[in-house]
Amino acid sequence: MIQIFKKELANFFTGYMAYISASAFVVICTLFLWFFENEFNIFNIGTATLSSFFFISPWILLFLIPALTMRTLSEEESSGTLQWLFTQPLKISGIVWGKYWAVIVVLLFSIVPSLIFIYTLNHFIAEGQSLDYGVFSSGYLGLFLLGSCFAAIGIFTSSLTNNQVAAYISAVLLCFVLFYAFESLASYNLMGTADYYVQKLGMYVHYQRLLKGIIDTRDVIYFIVIIGLFMTLTQYNLEKKK
Length: 242
Description:
- There is one protein chain.
- By secondary structure, the chain is mainly α.
- It has one domain.
- It is built from 13 helices and no strands.
- The protein has helices spanning about 1-15, 15-35, 40-45, 50-70, 75-80, 80-85, 90-110, 115-120, 135-160, 165-185, 195-200, 205-210, 215-240.
- Helix 1 (about 1-15) runs parallel beside helix 7, helix 2 (about 15-35) runs parallel beside helix 7 (about 90-110) and helix 4 (about 50-70) packs antiparallel against helix 10.
- It is globular and about 65 Å long.
């Protein structure tokens, strides 16, 4: 796994994809939070909060992370190097998790620079007031877990096809369904009490709970289960191809 991890990480940074992803994430968030005239602009909100950031970020990651993962396995298959990897003394799980952790490092590399928003907010609060760092911490935890799920989904779709564009589109659609579609469906109140359980199937409600500063182990376990599920499915796909 370590060899695959180092190889993928080197590809991300020498190919500048990691820098492009981090720059795109921070620039888009900065423009919406501080410059564009919209409902997310912190100056328009008038309170020292990053609620706008935590609302916008998942939608950016929903498109950004599939761009990172779309070539992880599909490119290996189209170029023929996937079969070569199968002949090496590597476990399938090592290949899958090595690629996954490389994407996670890039995810962190993209998110961490946004901490400067907290530093900036600290200069705008009134004297005697303080920021709620507990809410910020749980919010960043939720954003990281959400991004980690998107990464697992993206690697899964990349294992399904040797077409990178198809892998990207599939990942975006699947991430959207699991993040927001269940929440949207439950909001119509079509199934009575079953709407509650439909809502719980999606990531949105679990993410929102973390944004409120509530770190419930059930929410954390939910994200871990989603990651484990898609990583297991990815390993299963590769086992069949082997």
